[in-house]
Amino acid sequence: MPEYSIVEYFGRGSGHECGYCRAAPEGRVSHGLWAHRMSPSTYQDLLDRGWRRSGQYCYKPIMHETCCPQYTIRCEATQNKPTKSQKRVLVAFRNYIEKDIVPKSRSKHSPVSGIESDKKPPSVRKKCAVKELAPSAGGSKDKPVKSLNPSKKRFQRYQRKVERLRSRNFTEEQIQQRFSERLNYKLSKCPEKTIEDFLTISSYQNAKHDFEFRLVQSSPESDEFKRTKAEEHRVYAKYQMAVHNDEEDECTMKQFDRFLCRSPLTRVPLAPGCSTHQGSYHLQYWLDARLIAVAVIDVMATGLSSVYLFYDPDYSFLCLGKVSALQEIAFTRKLQREHPPFKYYYMGYYIHDCAKMKYKGSYRGSSLLCPEAYTWHPLEEVQGVLDRQKYARFSAASVRPARVPLSALLVLFNKTAMPFNVYAGLEPEQSREETQALDEYCQLIGPAALPRMLLFRSPSSE
Questions:
Q1: What digits encode the pLDDT tens for the residues 306-319?
Q2: Which of 365, 348, 306 is nearest to 80 (CA)?
Q3: In whole angstroms, what is the distance from residue 15 CA to residue 17 CA?
C-alpha cells in the first residue's frame, strides 16, 4: 500500500512584492498548497512540475504572469566538474582550514554580501590603472603601454614545434594527433581534481583549524538537532539581519522553526544498505567547535534538494554559499555511489535577469524545467532564448503534458480516503462548485504525484 501524502489546496494566491526586482507591489504570483504530510518521492515529483516548499507551504509560480519567472533548475551531479572560479573558492577554503590563510581578495572584516564580487580590491585596481596609462619612452602620453601577452609566447613555442614536425614530413593530421597524444599523456599523469579532493577533510594535513560537516536530522527532530537548535537560530538571526536587512523581531525562534525546521517530508529508507534515509536534514558547518553555517536540504528518491543556506557573516570571506553548493553536489555523488539512481541536485529556482539567482547556472551539468511541457533542457541550450525574453517555453509546441482526469483525484473526506466520484456522490453540490479548482489542482500536480496524494475536503455543513 503506498504512503499517501495529505494536502490542502489554496489555489491562486494574492500577488505580493517580488523580493528580487521589487518593481511591482503585487508582481509575484503563485499557486499554493499546505502539506500536512508528504513522502519524499512525491515531493520530488512536485519539484519536477515546478513546485517548491518553504516549511510546510508549497508554492508554484505562475510563470507567464509573475514579474521574474522562476525556472526550476537541477544539476546532474555525476556530470558536474568545477569551473576555475569554483576551484579557486575551494582552494581558498582549504588553505584557510589547513594553513589559516585568508583569501587575498577578501578579509575577515570584508563587507557582507549575498553575492561574491569578482572585482579586484581598490589597491589592486589602482596599480593596474597606473601601469596601463604609463607613457612609453619617447611616445605619446595618451598612448598606453602594450604589455607582452604571455599567451603570445606560448603560441610562438607551439608554432616552432609545428615547423619542426613539418620539416620532418609530418602531415597536418599527424601533427594534431601528436599534440593530442601528448596532452592525454600529461592529463593521465596529473588527473583533474574533483570537488571531493578539496572537501575531504580527513585528507587535510596538520590543519590549523578543526573543521567538520555534521548531517543532523531535522524532521522529526533528532537529539543532536535539539541540542544545536538554539545555536542554529543565533546564526540564522545574525545572517538575516546582516544580509537581508531583517529586523530582530522578524527573526524569532518561532519564525525560524516554521520556515526552516518544520517539514512535511516523512522519513523512509533510501535503499537497502544506504547510510542515509530520505527526509529533511540540516548540514552543519563547524569550525573550531563553533557553528558557522547551516544548509537545509531534503533527501528524496533520486535527488537532493537545497532548501536554504545561512551562515555567520563574520565568515563571508570563505564564500560559504559556493562552498555549500559544491559540498551538496559532492554529497549527492556520495549517495549515488550507494544508490545509483540517486544523481540529481535541485538548486531551487533560476532567474535569468537576477544576479542573485543567475549564479546557479555556473554549475556544469545544469538543466532548466520547461514551464509548460515539464521537460528538462540543458541550460546552455536555452540561455539564448532567455536573453531575448523573460518567459519562454523550451519544448516544441507539439509537446504537451498528459491531461489528468478528475477521476484520478483522491480525496480525504470525513477521515476517509476515497476517489473523487465517491466524494462527488456524497457532496454533489459542493463538488460541482469546486470542479474548476479541483481540475486546476490535478493539472498542476500531474499524473506522477496525484495517485499518491489525498486532497483534504471538509463537509459542506462546516
A1: 999 999 999 999 99
A2: 365
A3: 7
Q: What is the DSSP string of 44-71?
A: HHHHTTT-EEETTEEEEE-TTTSSS--E
Task: For residues 279 and 184, give the distance between their C-alpha atoms in angstroms, rounded to a whole number.
Answer: 43
Q: Are 410 and 420 in contact (CB under 8 A)?
A: yes
Helical H runs in 339-458?
355-358, 379-388, 420-426, 428-445
Distance CA 445, CA 56 (A): 16
**Cell 601577452 identifies what position?**
149
pLDDT digits (tens, 9 = 90+) for 76-109: 999 999 999 999 999 999 999 999 999 876 555 4
Name the H helices within 168-222: 172-189, 195-199
111, 119 contact by CB (below 8 A): no
pTM of the model: 0.82
- Show the cell assigned to 421: 466520484
- On the question of pLDDT at 45 being above 90, the answer is yes
Q: What residue has cell string 610562438?
A: 156
Mean pLDDT of the chain, nearest integer: 87
Please check whether residue 40 is in contact with residue 265, taking contact to mean a CB–CB distance below 8 angstroms: yes
Q: Would you state the pLDDT for residue 1?
A: 53
134 — pLDDT class (breaks 50, 70, 90): very low
DSSP 120-171: PPHHHHHHHHHHHHPPPTTS-TTSPP-PPPHHHHHHHHHHHHHHHHHHTT--
